[in-house]
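Hi R.,

Here's the chain you asked about this morning:
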Amino acid sequence: IWAKRIEADFELMEALGCKGSSLTLSQLADEYLDDWSGKDANQAPRVAFWVTVLGHYNLVDITATVVRESLEALGKGSCKRGDGLGRAKNLDRNPSPATINRYRAVLSSMLKYAVSQGYITSNPVAKVPTKALNNKIVRYLSDTERQDLLAACRQSSWKPLYRLVLLAMTTGMRKAELMNLRWSDIDFTRSVAMLATTKNGEPRHCPIPSIALDEFKMVRQVGDGLVFPSKKIPTKPFEFRKHWAKAINVAGIKGFRFHDLRHTAASYMVMNGMSLYETATVLGHKDTQTTTRYAHLSTEHIASLTEKAMSIVLGQS
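And here is the predicted structure, written out as tokens:
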């Protein structure tokens, strides 16, 4: 009975001119990317992921259940994700709810396009809710940890490690942005890094505080070479993982990843009076939703200032 109903549905769709009964997601992907005019560098890798997972499906066979199960598999880390520069890399951990939502958004965009072209009549992704974002308190360096880490980086056998960590800590730049930074990207006069290629596909100017910029002035090079090049292949970024791990160990810091330097920068910005909007702008967030995880720090900062002010007013300081 079900087979006859499905066959009847196919015949009805074909009679209405819908191609979804014979067009696969893989075939749709090529057409979709040709038509897509966005700037997100990770759009193509995410489309490629869906082609790998559902590419053999006819569009009419992609139901809400299929989408939900695919996203659940993604949540277990059984996929690749973008590296922030339009390339795919293997996940070494379960993706965050935000990452899952981005993959969901790409599939939804593809199937919305299919609806607009008359290939299918509705978008099944619309029936699958987004994941709730986990805005737990982020890990950032205490004053003591910061001092210990920078001291350990100064002792590293790879001398640029100190400059790399200091730059990450003071600007909030992503690892991929740091590793692909070129000397020609740094405007020493205006104290900014001009990032042409970022995770969200939008170029941005990232302010560099003088405490970090002064370190780079001492080793400044002419040309457009990488700021942190590989010793063997200067056109490729240096692989600093073992040097970072050693510095963290020497500093005695637990549960801290390189990416947490970005959280550290954001936390310092908010705790020292920058608004969430201003912080989002520096970090390159498309909106302040991602930045709201730091809101509690702003509240604590205001509470601290209020406590200090009232203590002075009441003569208790």
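One quick note: The chain has two domains: 2-127, 143-313.

Cheers,
M.
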